[in-house]
Design a protein that fits this description.
Blueprint lengths: L4 H13 L2 H28 L6 H9 L1 H34 L19 H18 L2 H29 L3 H8 L2 H6 L5 H17 L16 H14 L1
Helix pairs in contact: 1-2, 1-9, 2-9, 2-10, 3-4, 4-5, 5-6
């Protein structure tokens, strides 16, 4: 559930809404929607503990055509696009430690086709993780636990440093200063609501991985207990 999206999309969300308090509100609303969706999926997983997750639910609800279309869309667009986005972000952030990844063709504004060092780094990450998973479940589990632990520790470290060890009163005042205005409704207009909705695209993208746990429902020993617990626990984290 703890993916890399939170490190990628926050800047874009801030550009949409332009307020630290609204940025926090976007994450809060997205979290509530995610928990609601996870609880609904938990019920579906208990009712239909089959491999496939969303594919099974769409097939049973709307017919085989919609399940078929979703399955191929997931394979060709959704999962592959997410993998590409996260890999490019990883390579871009890695460029801070390895400046060589920032050079080469394909930088700057607009669309650029072909290879750059950043893109080669992203491809290498995808190839490396694919090779690790092909080696077997144990290797994939170790790699997954390692990266998940790093992300959790990073978020905990940021929270502890900014809130407990070295809090910045000015930054805290800026971040939470607009909360009263958000609840008062004085800043809400049609344009502001539209911007808020557009900003939620990034936050919901970051929270989208929770549904993947339903893909292995048929391989779970007690899906009626484990899947709802995993969905609720993963999203609450």
């Amino acid at each position: 559930m703890i993916g890399s999206g939170i490190f990628i999309v926050s800047a874009d969300i801030a550009r949409h809404i332009g307020s630290p308090a609204a940025l926090l509100a976007v994450w809060l609303v997205s979290g509530m929607m995610t928990i609601a969706g996870a609880l609904a999926y938990g019920e579906l997983a208990v009712m239909m503990p089959q491999a496939g997750g969303q594919y099974v639910y769409l097939r049973e609800a709307y017919g085989r055509l919609f399940g078929f279309l979703f399955g191929w869309t997931l394979f060709l667009v959704i999962q592959t696009g997410t993998i590409a986005a996260v890999a490019v972000a990883f390579a871009r952030f890695a460029g801070v430690l390895f400046p060589a990844l920032n050079s080469g063709a394909g930088t700057g504004a607009g669309w650029h086709f072909g290879f750059s060092r950043e893109r080669i780094g992203a491809i290498a990450v995808i190839a490396g993780l694919t090779a690790a998973n092909l080696r077997g479940l144990n290797t994939g589990r170790v790699v997954q636990n390692l990266f998940t632990s790093i992300k959790i520790l990073s978020l905990v470290l940021i929270a502890v440093l900014t809130l407990l060890v070295a809090p910045n009163p000015a930054a805290i005042a800026i971040n939470f200063g607009g909360v009263r205005e958000l609840f008062s409704g004085s800043v809400w207009s049609v344009a502001a609501i539209a911007a808020f909705g557009a900003a939620m695209v990034g936050s919901l993208f970051s929270a989208d991985a929770w549904a993947s746990v339903t893909f292995v429902a048929s391989e779970t020993r007690r899906p009626d207990r484990d899947l709802p617990f995993a969905l609720a626990g993963g999203t609450l984290w």
